[in-house]
Amino acid sequence: MCLRPCVRSSRALPLRKPTPLAPKLHPATGLPLSRTRGQHLLHNQGVIYKIVEAADIQASDAVYEVGCGTGELTMRLLPLARKVYTVDTELRMVEETKSRAQSGGFQNLEALVGDALRVPMPRRFDVCVSNLPYKISAPIIFRLLRRISEGHPWRAAVLMLQREFADRLLSDPGEKGFSRLALNVRLFAKAVRLFDVKPGSFIPSPEIHSTVIRLEPRVPAPEVDFNEWDALIRVIFSRRRKTLRAQFKKLSTLAMLEQNYKMWCSLSGTKPSAIPFPELVSSVLKEESMLRERAFAMDLDDLHLLLKAFNRRGIHFASVHQGAAEAEDLDFATSGSGGVGSFPQLTSDFLYP
Fold first, then answer.
1. What's the Cα-to-Cα distance from 108 to each of 89, 120, 153, 237, rounded to whole Å?
2. 30 is known to lie in a ligand binding site
3. What protein family does this chain belong to (predicted)?
4. Is the peptide bond before 220 cis (omega within 30 degrees of 0)?
5. How far apart are CA 242 and CA 186, in angstroms?
């Protein structure tokens, strides 16, 4: 019997184009919300009340908020504070928040359109209260910590964070999640977990849980330059389970430190050491008995002593030129534009309260 081979048809059914999903709309304003931009707006009034209560805002306080959204949290802050500063990348969000404030008869709102990582913080504020966009949580917290080291501390910060991120931020030395950010927070502030927030409290609902924390600056503030400290922590946490002896044998690290050392010697009129630079670095570790220490298991006191020991020998981790961070903010403040969209010249009360 002759069997005919099975021949597949070359003609295939056309693929149906996927139906585009309609954007999630905010129920009160009708504004479309984007998950890809991290627009998960808090709408649970009970959670908002607990956040405001934890902030303990006084009538004389200036409050800084990152990401106003449609103004749910902002409208709770306005009747309590002397001034509320807020910034959001979305023009439509800022306009909606301004409109709600005007309808409520509030004149103490200063709202800007722009990138919160590029728009300078207010020169003075007492409390930071924010449902932070998760993608910028770490850099915003670093900016808050830097403000403490610059001598213009705030009193408290109540922040909504991704739960996994909050777990790492609150981890202890030696734990798996202990990181550079957790160490910096421990040096400059006291961090407390307040409560968790379920996904259903947001529109649209994110796929993760959230956590609200409270930060309070340490008093007195530690006598350490934030840029110098953070540069040290960045170096030793790049391979946090390696010994410090191994960390400081890395060629790129030695090259960076030697360049800073030569610049410091030139500016201070100090004669460079006669011994090779790698041996100079190793001698500091040996004198402090830290050759075998590992970054993830070191406490604040040990790291502070190590930084002072390096600085005494003229070895610096950040650029020896001062004011780099301030110059960056000043350049942007006088440019009149940047971030997402554009916004007016920053000569308002946002910069000069």
1. 20, 19, 22, 43
2. no
3. Belongs to the class I-like SAM-binding methyltransferase superfamily. rRNA adenine N(6)-methyltransferase family.
4. yes
5. 22
The architecture in CATH of the region 226-312 reads Orthogonal Bundle (1.10)
User: What's the Cα-to-Cα distance from 260 to each of 278, 284, 286, 315, 320, rounded to whole Å?
Assistant: 14, 16, 21, 7, 7
Show me where the domains of the chain are located.
38-217, 226-312
**Helix 226-236 vs helix 300-312: angle between axes, to the nearest 10 degrees?**
110
- pLDDT of the residue at 232: 93
pLDDT tens digits, 30-75: 555 555 555 678 889 999 999 999 999 999 999 999 999 899 999 9
174 near 240, Cβ under 8 Å? no
- Whether residue 159 contacts residue 212, with contact meaning beta carbons closer than 8 Å, is answered with yes
Q: What share of the chain is helix, strand, coil (3-state, %, to 5)?
A: 40, 15, 45
Q: What angle do CA 67, 131, 327 make, to 5 degrees?
A: 50
H/E segment holding residue 84? strand 83-88
Any known ligand binding at 67?
Answer: yes
Residue 42 annotated in ligand binding: yes
Amino acid at 297: A
Q: What is the DSSP letter of 294?
A: B
What would the two tokens of residue 171 be? Answer: 């981890």
Question: Is 131 labelled a binding residue?
Answer: yes
- In this structure, the strands spanning 156-162 and 127-131 are parallel
Q: Which two tokens stand for residue 289?
A: 């008995």
**Residue type, position 317, single letter:** F
What average pLDDT score do residues 234-239 get?
89
Asked whether residue 88 is marked as a ligand-binding residue, the answer is yes
Class of domain 38-217: alpha beta
pLDDT in tens, 70-111: 999 999 999 999 999 999 998 999 999 999 999 999 999 999
pTM of the model: 0.76
